[in-house]
Specification:
There is one protein chain. By secondary structure, this protein is α/β, with parallel strands linked by helices. The chain has 2 domains: about 160 residues, Alpha-Beta Complex (Quinone Oxidoreductase, Chain A, domain 1); about 130 residues, NAD(P)-binding Rossmann-like Domain (Rossmann fold, 3-Layer(aba) Sandwich), CATH 3.40.50. About 25% of the residues lie in helices and about 30% in strands. Strands 3, 5, 6, 7, 8, 15 and 16 form a 7-stranded mixed beta sheet that branches. The protein has a 6-stranded parallel beta sheet with strand order 11-10-9-12-13-14, with helices on both faces. Strand 13, helix 7 and strand 14 form a beta-alpha-beta unit. The protein is globular.
């Protein structure tokens, strides 16, 4: 099989295409997936550059998100999947192994693919959609009628968080970096946009929940938006505890964990038409270096998800 691998951490040029034997499940709960499409995300760049914080060994095959068909299911694996099932999800807890024609995956990180989605569309969802779900539902516990600010609403996770929040009956406000994102955000259900300091000042203490998908220094500007006793949730950087305490707000930070159960919830939203995929570009595995140059900003990054095709 063909696979996109790294033997040393570094830039996109460090990715090499190799011919390998197809992997076989090696442990309880593992299955083999014949991969049709693989999502490309920021976490892949972190792994490629050695900044993931995970205990990884080189060489390795990149890729965390896959869609394809179950090839084999050992007797020790979960009974909810059988050979021939069309599935989507994540590879494993190390978020590697997906940029290949075959991948060994944890069965409890896979679910049956919604029928109305193509493999490319399904591969765009797993980590991003589960992250968005966990931020909005599990950590923020967003309720109908509440106001939520989604920081980075035009990004892949932000757009999914926006749609999930709307499905729960919340009022969604989105921060915007590029003016040409405004039309799409309104189509997703954003009712108000934060463009500048004046907008932030006008909406001070207006949010029950703030969802941060950007992190870094911009996170500080989000604290004044949260009502007292409200919550700021981030999946990208740890909020400042002292600043949160002074503002009398709660904070939460977590690393997403893809599971069959949450993927099932995402599938329900897709099937109900409440969540739509956003494909920015699809490209063959041969162009994986170009995909990572888009992640790094060397090439213009498309609006929407980058997906590799392996059929």
């Amino acid at each position: 099989m063909r696979a996109a691998r790294i033997h040393a951490y570094g830039p996109p040029a460090s990715i090499v295409l190799e011919n390998l034997d197809a992997p076989k499940p090696g442990g309880a709960g593992e299955v083999t997936v014949r991969v049709s499409a693989a999502g490309v995300g920021n976490w892949d760049a972190l792994i490629r550059t050695g900044r993931s914080g995970l205990a990884l060994s080189l060489p390795l095959t990149l890729g965390a998100e896959v869609a394809g068909v179950i090839e084999s299911v050992p007797a020790t694996s979960a009974a909810h999947l059988i050979p021939g099932d069309a599935v989507y999800g994540s590879t494993n807890s190390l978020f590697i192994g997906g940029y290949a024609q075959y991948a060994t995956c944890s069965a409890d990180m896979l679910a049956r693919k919604p029928r109305q989605l193509s493999s490319v569309e399904a591969a765009s969802l797993p980590v991003a959609a589960v992250t968005a779900w966990q931020m909005v539902i599990e950590h923020a516990r967003l309720a109908a009628g509440q106001t939520v600010v989604v920081h980075g609403a035009a990004g892949n996770v932000g757009a999914l968080a926006t749609q999930i929040a709307r499905s729960r009956g919340a009022r969604v406000i989105g921060t915007i970096h590029r003016e040409d994102d405004a039309k799409e955000l309104r189509a997703l259900g954003v009712t108000e946009l934060l463009r500048n300091e004046a907008d932030f000042a006008r909406l001070a203490r207006a949010a029950d929940v703030v969802i941060d998908t950007v992190g870094g220094r911009s996170q500080t500007s989000l604290v004044p938006l949260v009502k007292p006793a409200g919550i700021l949730v981030s999946s990208v950087s740890q909020p400042d505890a002292a600043l949160a305490a002074s503002a009398q707000i709660r904070t939460d930070y977590f690393i997403a964990r893809v599971s069959t159960a949450v993927l099932g919830e995402i599938s329900k939203l897709v099937e109900a038409g409440a969540v739509q995929t956003r494909i920015g570009v699809q490209m063959p595995l041969d162009e994986v270096r170009l995909a990572h140059q888009m992640l790094d900003g060397v090439l213009r990054r498309p609006r929407g998800k980058i997906v590799l095709t392996l059929d």
